[in-house]
Amino acid sequence: MSSSTFGEWLLIHYASIKSRSPNEGRRRWKLQVAQKFWASSEKMLSSVSTEQITILFTYDPRHSNISQTTAVVTDGDAEFHIDSDPFDEASTNREELGILLRTDFSDEAAWLAFCSRLEEGEKEFADSPLEEDDMTMDDQLEPNKASPSGTAATTTTVEDGSHESDDDSENSLSAIFHIINPSLSQERALITNISNLAALRLFNDVDVRQAPIPPPDTKRIRPPNRLVDSGGWQEVYVGKNLWIYDAKSNSDQCVRVVSPSSSDMYGTATADSWRARVSHICELQVNLSSGAMKIDFGGLDRWDYAERQRNMREAVTPGVL
């Protein structure tokens, strides 16, 4: 569910945006509403209730314009929750817990070695004895170090071709990763060297929440940025965890672990990432999905600063969605 404030913006603007570009899909329509939200000096819509809205702007195909109509629509019934998206088949509709996205195609041998190590890690994880999970949401996690957890039977599906694939018999509900590894050149071009933010916008849904509160004697960031804090608000994403195989993965056999929102520490950002070794990511994904783990590095800012700067630049670049 969207936050109440952004939900109000969606209830007012989503239908009209959808009518003007009917072939784009739910995620891009919501991103365009988010653009309106960030461009506005007044974020709170005091005339609109939190759970419903009585005046909606709807498209009238007979007159090809936007007209007002009286209706009562609850947030859960709204189009922005039930509309489809071109990337749902690779994300929302998949049974796996996370999405592993290959974004570099320059070294096939390194990629195959990575997949082999992932299969080994899955087998070890599936074969390990069940243990009581004693982790809490406040437990720390050091980069490239695994943490104790429970276990689950796992399979990994490798997608070779388009982002749609046939359901194989081994794809059980306990599967951990859906691997996106397109073979068509136009599909590879879409995700080659993709940023964390761009990947979130393809496979997750945008939302807005209140930004973390700065600690005493800490000033808010300048200039403001929607991924950290802009007027007390922060852009976040809702969906499955993203793990990105990039050019550096060919040598270090790690992936970028992408955060759909900032940590609780002020100054960290939505789309922050750190690198995790392939041998550990099965366990990490299961613990993240179950809520047994929260990555905060004990209050230290140990996320990749270069990736953060890249995301923050893209967030404020006109025309980039």
Main sheet specs: 6 strands, mixed
Report how far the terminal alpha carbons are from each other: 21 Å
N-to-C SSE series? HHEEHEHEEHHEEEHEEHH
Kindly give the count of domains.
Answer: 2
Low-confidence stretches are: 47-74, 132-174
Overall pLDDT score: 80
Strand content: 15-25%
- Which class do the helix and strand fractions yield? alpha/beta
Q: What share of the residues lie within helices?
A: 25-40%
Question: Would you mind describing this structure in some detail?
Answer:
The protein has two domains: 4-82, no CATH class; 88-315, no CATH class. Helix content is 30%, strand content 19%. It contains nine helices and ten strands. Helix 1 (4-20) packs across helix 2 (26-39). Mean pLDDT is 80; it is low at 47-74 and 132-174.
In summary, what is this structure?
Residues 129-141 have a biased composition (Acidic residues). Residues 123-169 are annotated as: Disordered. The protein has 321 residues and is α/β, with parallel strands linked by helices.
Give the key terms.
alpha/beta, 2 domains, two-stranded antiparallel sheet, 9 helices, 10 strands, 19% strand
SSE blueprint and pairings:
Elements lengths: L3 H17 L5 H14 L12 E9 L4 E10 L4 H4 L15 E5 L5 H20 L28 E5 L16 E5 L3 H7 L4 H8 L1 E6 L22 E6 L2 E5 L3 H4 L1 E5 L14 E5 L3 H10 L14 H11 L6
Parallel strand pairs: 3-5, 3-8, 4-5
Antiparallel strand pairs: 1-2, 6-7, 8-9, 9-10
